[in-house]
Amino acid sequence: MAGDSITLERLKKNELKKIVDIMIKEFSKEPYNEKWSRRFALKYIKSLLKNDPKLFFTIKHKGSIIGFISGATYWFAHGKSCYLEEFVIEEKHQGKGFGSIALKKFERILKNRGYKVLELNANKKARSFNFYKKRGFKELPWVLLRKVL
Length: 149
Ligand SMILES: CC(C)(COP(=O)(O)OP(=O)(O)OC[C@H]1O[C@@H](n2cnc3c(N)ncnc32)[C@H](O)[C@@H]1OP(=O)(O)O)[C@@H](O)C(=O)NCCC(=O)NCCS
Known about the structure:
Layout: E1 6-10, H1 16-26, H2 38-51, E2 56-61, E3 64-76, E4 79-89, H3 98-112, E5 117-119, H4 127-134
Parallel strand pairs: 4-5
Antiparallel strand pairs: 1-2, 2-3, 3-4
């Protein structure tokens, strides 16, 4: 089964550099155009890991890292909830169904751990927006606001 070649695994210390590389590279592209320094990207990944280590997974294909997925736990009226912080597959591995399998596996882990809801922010200009909508995510009336301080 195709799903068997994709695994979600806890991050090992020597894999941190690869995760930082993937993040910097994939989010430097359209429509994100994010300019991450290595220092800040490392700080960011470490903060995700520290915040909720049990919800940070490398995504591996036949044992090699092709991306990562990470969430944060919060409690709300609907119960134990997960906010999807990051989800990325390296470009050369995109469009092969690996992201769909990884997301399904992540959702199954959450369900097994008693989570009721998975929420995320998606950029409407990104291909991932329709990816999420086709996989059961619904738009909410909430809008992310930002004030530069
Ligand atoms: C979003 C993402 C994680 C999905 O992973 P993926 O392995 O590409 O996902 P899949 O192959 O299972 O599905 C991708 C969909 O896009 C289509 N697609 C085709 N070529 C593609 C390509 N080169 N890249 C991405 N998607 C492609 C696929 O056909 C599929 O369409 P479908 O929704 O009609 O099934 C991945 O594309 C990615 O990392 N994108 C950049 C980072 C990003 O946007 N992350 C989400 C932030 S919220």
